[in-house]
Amino acid sequence: MCIRDSNNTELILIRITGLDRPGLTASITEILSKYDVTILDIGQADIHSTLSLGILFKSQEKDSGNIMKELLFKASALGINIRFYPVTVEEYEEWVNMQGKNRYILTLLGRKLTAKQIAAVTGILAEQGLNIDAIKRLTGRIPLDERKANVRACIEFSVRGTPRQREEMQQALMKLSSDLEMDFSFQLDNMYRRMRRLICFDMDSTLIQTECIDELAERAGVGDQVREITERAMRGEIDFIESFTERVALLKGLDESVMKEIAENLPITEGVERLMFVLKRYGYKIAILSGGFTYFGNYLKDKFGIDYVYANELEIVNGKLTGRYLGDVVDGKRKAELLKLIAQVERVDIAQTIAVGDGANDLPMLSEAGLGIAFHAKPKVVANAQQSINTIGLDGVLYFLGFKDSYLEERGKL
């Protein structure tokens, strides 16, 4: 039985499953084309060479029987399964009205993804009244040997609806992220998400796996003193600018050549080379906004073709550090201001910006950016960020931007 509307037309949904092969979709639509039907919706997925194809169409009442008969014969000849479902006008109108509903993208990322992780996440979506429209794998095919280097898995859910309790859902996803060793991103699926253009990175413990001031302090023989000041700042006993001034003062007399030696041996974070290549290849503007030092930021700028560096300038006289710095300190507030300033210069809407960092002084820019990502961050930062990456390297950012491994040219692949 099919459902007729007032114009003697019928709405029919067909679902086809079976072994995929070239020309299958063409064979089905060729039959439909003979009867001048209107395609109202169409979707296809292929999982391990198994096809799932759905087509919703409108046809004349007089043609529906012949259409279904021909489709059944063709399905039998192709060795595939086909089912027919009637759709009422009311059901169709309700589906059309759903176009105005919010759409979100939920991205799951980790060294591997398990059924337990996916069950827990999709359970949260169901509790919030959200419907999954599509699921897509962004990473390449996963090897069975999990010990291989750079193994990671990422899937992307297209979700429709409005969360019943957005903050509660965010907290539940964050808890799962910690408990089940995975990362997630939950973003509104709009044109800004698809058109990010400016990305700003913290430097120390984000692009590089060290704190440059600690490296300098060790070589100046004041490592313990600098760490003690840092701990006082973390306890809230002194603010960032005061702690920064005290630590820099302890570097007085250090030879400038030490900075060159440190720069040439900076431990680059996993995934940075791949991330920078892909971002530059696809036209992103890249900035370093750091509470560290311009000397090391400029070294990374030259190495990776970064567009902007804003950090702190150490005063050097006669080849020696004076224990003072030049200009204003780049603290958390300044980072957020710089992000907005660069966006204005590049004529980029703030919703098209991305910020990545690990420390409390990164929170202002993470909050200001269209997409703020905490990277291997302190618990306070993770708790206040909307997205975080803790399980893989910095190139995990690419998956939150919707990049798919198979779309990237050779240097961008793993």
Q: What best-fitting shape do the alpha-carbon axes yield?
A: elongated
Number of helices: 16
Rg value: 27 Å
* Sheet with the most strands: spatial strand order: 13-12-11-10-14-15-16
Describe the largest sheet: 7 strands, mixed
Strand content: 25-35%
Query: What is the percent of helical residues?
Result: 25-40%
Task: List low-pLDDT spans.
Answer: none
* Number of DSSP-assigned strands: 16
How does the helix and strand content classify structurally?
alpha/beta
**Average pLDDT value?**
91
- The separation of the N and C termini measures 51 Å
What is this entry, summarized?
This protein has 414 residues and is an alpha/beta fold.
Give the helices and strands, then pairings.
Layout: E1 3-4, E2 9-19, H1 24-33, E3 38-47, E4 50-60, H2 61-78, E5 81-86, H3 89-97, E6 103-110, H4 115-127, E7 131-137, E8 153-160, H5 166-179, E9 183-188, H6 191-194, E10 198-201, H7 212-220, H8 223-234, H9 240-249, H10 257-263, H11 272-281, E11 285-293, H12 294-304, E12 308-317, E13 320-326, H13 332-345, E14 353-357, H14 363-368, E15 371-375, H15 379-384, E16 387-389, H16 397-400
Parallel strand pairs: 10-11, 10-14, 11-12, 14-15, 15-16
Antiparallel strand pairs: 1-2, 2-4, 2-5, 3-4, 6-8, 6-9, 7-8, 12-13
Structure write-up:
The protein has 414 residues and is an alpha/beta fold. The protein contains 16 helices and 16 strands. It has helices spanning 24-33, 61-78, 89-97, 115-127, 166-179, 191-194, 212-220, 223-234, 240-249, 257-263, 272-281, 294-304, 332-345, 363-368, 379-384, 397-400; strands at 3-4, 9-19, 38-47, 50-60, 81-86, 103-110, 131-137, 153-160, 183-188, 198-201, 285-293, 308-317, 320-326, 353-357, 371-375, 387-389. The strands form three sheets. A seven-stranded mixed beta sheet has the order 13-12-11-10-14-15-16, with helices on both faces. Strands 1, 2, 3, 4 and 5 form a five-stranded antiparallel beta sheet that branches. Strand 3 and strand 4 (50-60) form a beta hairpin. The longest helix is centred in the N-terminal third of the chain and has 18 residues, at 61-78.
